UniProtKB/TrEMBL annotation:
Source taxon at top rank: Eukaryota
A single GO molecular function term of this UniProt record: nucleic acid binding
Subcellular location, record wording: Nucleus
Protein name from the UniProt record: HTH_7 domain-containing protein
Amino acid sequence: MVSLEDRSAVVALFERGLSVSSISKSLKLHRVQVHRVIKRLDETGEITSRPRGRPQRSARTPALRKVVRDKVNRNPAWSIRKLAKEHNVSYTTMHRLNRDDLKLYPYKFAKGHQLTDEMKTSRLEKCRRMMALTRGDKLDRILFTDEKIFTVEPLQNAQNQRELLPKGSHRAVNIISTVSDVFRKQILEDEVLCWSQENAKNIAWTFQQDWAPAHSAKKNQEWCEANFPSCWTKEIWPSNSPDLNPMDFAIWSILEQKACSSRHGSLISLKKALGKAWNEISQEMIARILQNFRKRLDACIKAKGGHFECDV
C-alpha cells in the first residue's frame, strides 16, 4: 500500500509534468501504483485510498433507537434480553444501543433509609469513631445484633427486578421481639447474658444494637450498661444504618438463601431450616464478614456519611 506521503509526492511530481515512468523511478514505486494514484486524483479529486473490505452495517439504526427509547420511556422495566428478542438483534447490540446510544443503564432496586444532611454528618463522625474502636483484635470482641422477620413463603429474587433509567399477609417468625419488657427478659437476660457468662466471662467484649424503640428504652439501656462490660450507645452507633450492620448486610442474606429458597409448610419447618443454616456458617465466613464491616465503614466515610456502593 502506498503511504499518504508517497501519494502526495506522486501528485506533486505529476503536476510538475513528470511522466509515470519518471515518477516511478524517482520514488522507487511500481508504475501501477503511480498510475492508480494519478487515476484516483483524476476521478475523485482525492489521493486517499478507497476503503477496503465489506461495508460495515449496524443494526443500531436511528429507527431502532427511536422505537427502543419510546418503549423504555413508557415502561422502564423492559430488560435488555427481552428488547433484543423483541427486535431480533443480539443481546450485545441491544446492550450497546442502550448504553452508548441512549445512555441508559440497568439499575436494580435497593432498599435504603432516607438520610438527611444531619444524619450524614452524624454517620460520618460515628464511622470514624468506630474505625478507631475496631483496630487490631478489638473487632473480634463485638457482639453484633439485629432483628429479622422470616416468612414461610419463598424468598423473592430482587436481583432480577431492574429498570432502565438515565443514570399481602403471611405467617411469620420474628427472631427477636420488639416489645421492650419482653426484649429485656427473653433476649438480653435469657440469651445474651447467659451466653456471655458461659463464653465470655473474663473477656472485655462490647454489645452492639441499633436504636429501635425496644432497644433505646431507658430501662433497657441502663440494664445493658449494668450487665455488659461495654455497650455501643447512641453516641457510637449511627441511626438508620443497616448497611453497616454485619447481621443485616451479610448474615440474614445467607440464612435466606439457604433456608428460604422454597416455601415451608409450617413455622416448625421454617425454624428448623433456619437453625440448620445458622449452624452451617463457618468461623472463617464470620471472620471475613467482620473484616468487611471495616471496609463498609471506610466506604461510608468516603461517601461523607451518605449511601455507598460496596461489593461486600
